[in-house]
Amino acid sequence: MKRRYVTFLTFLALGVVAFKSFPPTDEEYQVRREHMVKEIEADVKFTSERIGKKALGRHVMEAMGKVPRHEFVPAHLRRSAYENRPLPIGYGQTISQPYIVALMTDLLDVDEDNVVLEIGTGSGYQAAILAELVEKVYTVEIVRELGEQAKGRLKRLGYQNVWVRIGDGYYGWEEHAPFDGIIVTAAASHIPPPLVKQLKPGGRIIIPVGSPFMTQQLMLVKKEKDGKIKTKQVLPVLFVPLTGGH
Question: How far apart are CA 199 and CA 236, in angstroms?
Fold first, then answer.
């Protein structure tokens, strides 16, 4: 009897482990996305004085609530996909905190007919958010493996208005310029002149600027209609460094 009892408990324990290992359902992921959106809204209110706004645009928040972030993180981190924090995606890179993704997207101030350039494709999550809001997204990734993975992932998820290129994002993507907006998801020591050149008059660049692995400043760069450049510090941030041969 004792042996059978132990065997039954072992079977029961294995059953519990197996049950716990089941991935969340689509409905559960949706609930987690909704909670993530509420956390973003709370962070925006908390930082409202610094960022100069009490709420982000409705369309931006709708995109954050729609795009399946769990599809853009490694399989073993999917249960953490909707936590409001960055997550590693391999090759020393990360997927940014949802609040930062939403804020940077909002600051870009895009319209549905816009063409946008992203530097630092990573997993493709930021490109997917942008694809919900604009006509075309061109995105450049320097790590070939990440770029190829993102290209396949975005295609699988049905994003037909995103084009991925493997290359050094410091130099932009000149053949598709000028861009209505440019978003950089890695920290540069300065604002890259090629990106400024490829920005339309009236357009914006959102970029973290500062030393690697130290607190940087999220910068809003505006190109006026006459070509003059204005910059504004928005928020202290921490991004992986922009790499390349520059």
Answer: 24
CB 67 within 8 A of CB 128: yes
The residues that are catalytic are: 96
Block means of pLDDT (10 residues each) for the chain, length 246 residues?
A: 48 47 84 97 96 96 98 95 96 95 97 97 98 98 97 97 97 97 95 97 96 88 94 94 80
Give dist(CA 136, CA 175) in Å, integer: 14
Contact indicator for 127, 137 with CB cutoff of 8 Å: yes
Architecture field, domain 2-237: 3-Layer(aba) Sandwich (3.40)
Domain residue limits, the chain: 2-237
**CA 122/CA 87 separation, integer angstroms:** 11
Q: Is 135 exposed, middle or buried (0-12, 13-18, 19+ CB in 10 A)?
A: middle
Q: How far is CA 52 from CA 56, 58, 83, 224, in A?
A: 10, 16, 25, 20
The amino acid present at 12, given as its one-letter code, is L
Tell me the per-residue pLDDT of 61-91, one tens digit each, with 9 for 90 and over. 999 999 999 999 999 999 999 999 999 999 9
CA-to-CA separations, 128 to 122, 134, 214, in angstroms, rounded: 11, 10, 28
Q: Which helix or strand (DSSP H or E) is residue 32 part of?
A: helix 26-46
